[in-house]
Amino acid sequence: GLRIAPTSNTALTDWHFKGIKLGGIDPVPGDSSYRSNYGAEAYRGTNIVFQQIGLDVSLTGLHEAGIKIGGGESTRVIGSSFNRPVVSQIELDDSPSGVMILQNDFSVFTGGRAIQLHGVGRKPTVIADNTFHDAAAAGDGAVFLYLGAAGTRIYGNRFWNITNAAPGIGVQRSGQAFI
């Protein structure tokens, strides 16, 4: 996987990743007993952009997320395709601020979620104009707002052919979200 994280003495700002495929890594060739947990992890960065990203077939249900955004500010995921059955295709954790997830296509998150968000920073997360389809979501929904996602704005998204208990948006101990 790809890890984007500053060291204690540096700032990571203004990175733009466009048109790449994210995959899991076997640290020992042929040994699939352990893989990196994420296709990409953006940790405490500012103004990181993932655009027209795809997930490689090497990402499976053993992986935690296609992209994990931990902390930081103004990370954007735009116009990408997420179609691998990982636990969460995008996971937001550690209070990221001002994240925007726009115009993406999410499918095949069977047994998992397209987006899981727990904790937001000073600026709200926006999830808009995405498509969610052809999956059996985890029982808490295709989009799951959990623990401290107050202020999140979700609008203009399309959901179809999603099965399980909470096929659309699940909210649990999150605070007020705008849907």
Report on this structure.
- With 179 residues, the chain is mostly beta strands.
- It contains no helices and 19 strands.
- It has strands at 2-4, 13-18, 21-22, 38-43, 46-51, 54-55, 65-70, 76-78, 81-82, 88-93, 100-102, 105-107, 113-117, 126-128, 131-136, 143-146, 153-155, 158-163, 169-172.
- The N and C termini lie far apart (32 Å).
- The model is unreliable at 31-35 (pLDDT under 50).
Q: From the helix content, strand content and strand pairing, which structural class follows?
A: mainly beta
The biggest sheet amounts to:
7 strands, parallel
What does the average pLDDT come to? 81
With strands numbered from the N-terminus, the spatial order across the biggest sheet is: 1-4-7-10-13-16-19
- Pattern of helices and strands: EEEEEEEEEEEEEEEEEEE
Number of extended strands: 19
Sum up the overall morphology in one term.
Answer: globular
Distance between the termini: 32 Å
Please estimate the helix content. under 10%
Number of helices, counting only DSSP H or I runs of 4 residues or more: 0
Low-confidence stretches: 31-35
Strand content: 35-45%
Radius of gyration, taken over Cα atoms and rounded to an integer in Å: 15 Å
